[in-house]
Write a structure and sequence with these properties.
- The structure holds two protein chains of two kinds.
- Chain A is of the alpha/beta class.
- Chain A is built from ten helices and twelve strands.
- In chain A, strand 9, helix 5 (211-216) and strand 10 form a beta-alpha-beta unit.
- In chain A, helix 1 runs parallel beside helix 7, helix 2 runs parallel beside helix 3 (93-107) and helix 3 (93-107) crosses helix 4 (137-152).
- Chain B has eleven helices and eleven strands.
- Chain B folds into two domains: 10-264 and 339-355, TIM Barrel; 282-336, no CATH class.
- In chain B, helix 1 (33-45) packs across helix 2.
- The chains are: A alpha/beta, B alpha/beta.
Chain lengths: 331, 372
């Protein structure tokens, strides 16, 4: 943990539908996201806000596809962290892993995945694959997160050697099969996309005390704490940290008002329900917690904004190859 | 006098496993967004109608070994497209997506999103991805060789229904209940549709089934021929097949793959082509090409030496060449992206011929959509 107090972190949930449930256009979303960035927000989580609001996550929810919108916004908005809400329940992990990694490439290391799961069966059918039984979905989501993160590691950071003299573009010894064999998934790998700029884009989950939160919390970098009281918020943040077993993470309290961090263990706020022109106007007029956007530069990754380290590659850790030696080889 | 015809120009970003001159001193990163943005802006500045991006469902391997001599590993070119839409204004954005390892509802949503974000510039190069990389995906995508085009046809039909229903219902909200041979969809679809409503469908595939499929569903058919005779025969064949299923053959555009080298003189162009070919054909690439024909591991042979004295493994070599003969897209793109050969070199005189004169392409008349 850094010794100096960091600026309080501020995030905003922007939904791909408006308060009446109608899908928002690209221009609507750009206006809101650029407005949020101008108001000093550090990160946006774009997509289905239902999980933050305690509602069901629907497979056939309305709206533009969040990762695509974020890839489109990334060249248009500097600095802002860009998290896409995507459900693990219907995910094809190979596609999902590469989509989030690619937002990371386009944004220069500012991407994240806000992982949600569908606990209720709404009856909607959008996939030729049957969804797991409702009681298995939290456990299934864990497996999806493990596979997505695992695929990000299948390329070591320096696998792409580009040796002009020998004609070797990659070093196959630094590209690994995942060979995941789980209860629900069998995914071979390696990824078709090299390890993204952040190593692992930030993985966020909603911490509402429910089964998905309990299952995914130990795998997340960032928790969005939903709580009715400061006591409950502190308890959920504490449980999140305890499950992480010392792994660095951040917890943001889900709220509709800007104010001082109201509970122990809370690093900042995730604003929900203010993704409207009026909400952003109010946000701009309110006093901001602290330094805000001046604390980051154009080259800052989302992990740096959050004060989170770049994860060590599990395959590099496993083979124990000294990083210095690897760099010497490529030099 | 007939109206002058315009060539459709598509710029293909070579995909994984294609020959890429990554050893060129100016090649730069093959993964940074800046490289792709440079490619897209350059194509747009050159008045190209569209970019054509491949799809990777895994890394290129031979006998379980990752190939090390060619560009493998890229960002997901599909997710890159919206980023490219943000840094360009007119060029079409045609993305390859498999009808096998995707779901119609999700893919229709993604294409509607790209079309909407790009102001109507999305195109879909539909492929069937037979035999590729199933082990990277959930189980249950199995489809027989015979059924692959039937499945793709249903995939496209479901996508079209989602797009067009959402467009005709003023709210942009559609409900689809579909139980087909390959797909079931019972869901709402509420995405702001793009200006095109249905993106142009692009297809390649030289087999009889592939030609019938293209003639039935495609707006643009992408092919590759060594000579004008076979290209014209293909074109006539596609038109015949389109008419047979009740389509106006004139609405189908046929485009062919070509590599070219631009220089001030023939001699300079040939010199440049030779240099470029040398860049592409590193010793490792030379051995790899030979291994594909020989069906054997030849890594201990001298790439500049005589041909191997051992007999080819005809069975192994056949698997590769037969796939290519069937005209499946993956084999064809490999051909299309190979080194420029004299057949495709364009000298200044060739470039200024009436059919391909760059001056005839005015910026204003080239629309935003890949096809019109």
């Amino acid at each position: 943990m850094p010794e100096n107090p960091r600026p309080t972190l501020l995030g905003i949930a922007v939904d791909t539908v408006d308060p009446n449930g109608a899908p928002r256009t690209a221009e609507d979303l750009r206006t809101l996201v650029l407005g949020a960035a101008a108001a000093g927000v550090h990160l946006v989580t774009l997509g289905d806000r239902s999980a933050l609001d305690g509602g069901p996550v629907r497979p056939d929810r309305a709206g533009l596809e969040p990762a695509s919108v974020l890839a489109w916004l990334a060249p248009q908005v500097p600095r802002l962290g860009l998290l896409a809400v995507r459900s693990a329940t219907r995910a094809e992990p190979y596609h999902l892993s590469r989509a989030i990694a690619t937002v990371d490439y386009v944004s220069g290391g500012r991407a994240g995945w806000h992982c949600v799961a569908e606990l209720d069966d709404t009856g909607a059918v959008v996939s030729s694959h049957p969804a797991p039984a409702p009681q298995e979905r939290a456990e299934h989501a864990v497996e999806v997160v493990e596979v997505v993160r695992g695929l990000w590691d299948t390329w070591e950071d320096d696998a792409c050697v580009r040796e002009v003299a020998t004609g070797r573009y990659v070093d196959p010894a630094r590209i690994h099969r995942l060979d995941h064999r789980g209860t629900h998934l069998a995914i071979r790998g390696p990824s078709a996309t090299p390890r993204p700029p952040q190593g692992h884009p930030v993985v966020a989950v909603t911490l509402d005390g429910g089964p998905v939160a309990a299952a995914l919390g130990p795998l997340a970098d960032l928790g969005f704490v939903v709580a009715d009281t400061p006591f409950e918020a502190a308890a959920r943040a504490a449980a999140f940290r305890a499950a992480a077993d010392g792994r660095p993470l951040r917890a943001l309290l889900v709220t509709d008002r800007v104010g001082p961090a109201p509970a122990d263990g809370i690093d900042g706020l995730l604003l929900t329900g203010v993704d409207t022109a009026e909400g952003l106007a109010a946000l701009r007029s309110e006093s901001r917690p602290v330094a805000g956007p001046t604390a980051t530069t154009a080259t800052t990754t989302l992990r740096q904004t959050l004060g989170l380290p770049r994860p060590v590659n599990r395959f590099r850790a496993a083979t124990g190859t000294p990083t210095e030696a690897a760099h010497a080889r490529t030099a | 006098m007939p109206a002058p015809r315009e060539l459709i120009l598509a710029a293909m970003f070579p995909g994984d496993g294609n020959f890429v001159a990554w050893r060129h001193p100016d090649a730069g990163s093959q993964t940074d967004f800046a490289s792709f943005a440079h490619f897209a802006r350059t194509a747009e500045r050159g008045l190209f109608d569209m970019l054509l991006m491949g799809e990777s469902l895994g890394v290129v391997e031979r006998d379980g070994q990752v190939l090390d001599h060619t560009v493998i590993g890229r960002p997901d070119l599909w997710t890159l497209m919206p980023g490219l839409a943000a840094v360009t204004e007119r060029v079409g954005l045609a993305a390859t997506r498999s009808a096998r390892f995707n779901e119609p509802w999700e893919l229709a949503r993604q294409f509607a999103t790209l079309d909407h974000l790009s102001g109507g510039r999305a195109g879909w190069n539909v492929v069937t991805s037979l035999g590729q990389k199933a082990e990277n995906f959930r189980s249950g995508y199995s489809v027989s060789y015979a059924d692959r085009y039937a499945q793709a046809s249903e995939f496209i039909a479901v996508s079209r229904r989602l797009w067009t229903t959402a467009a005709t219902e003023g709210t942009g909200r559609a409900r689809l209940d579909h139980d087909g041979e390959f797909f079931s969809v019972h869901a709402d679809f509420a995405v702001p549709v793009g200006p095109q409503v249905v993106p142009p469908i692009i297809q390649a595939g030289g087999s009889t089934e592939g030609r019938d499929f293209g003639a039935a569903v495609a707006d643009v058919i992408f092919t590759d021929h060594q000579g004008i005779g076979s290209a014209q025969a293909f074109h006539a064949d596609v038109r015949r097949r389109a008419a047979a299923v009740g389509r106006d053959p004139a609405t189908i555009r046929v485009i062919t793959g070509v590599s070219f080298v631009v220089a001030d003189s023939d001699a300079e162009a040939r010199e440049k082509a030779a240099w470029y070919e040398d860049l592409l054909t590193s010793p490792r690439v030379a051995i790899d090409l030979l291994e594909q024909l020989w069906g054997r591991n030849l890594s201990t042979y001298d790439p500049d030496g005589p041909l191997p004295e051992i007999e080819p493994d005809w069975e192994a070599a056949y698997r590769y060449t037969s796939r290519r003969a069937v005209g499946e897209r993956d084999a064809r793109t490999e051909v299309a992206a190979t080194a420029p050969s004299p057949r495709s070199m364009a000298s200044p005189s060739a470039r200024s011929s009436p059919r391909s004169a760059p001056g005839s392409r005015s910026r204003g008349r080239r629309g935003r959509s890949p096809t019109r």
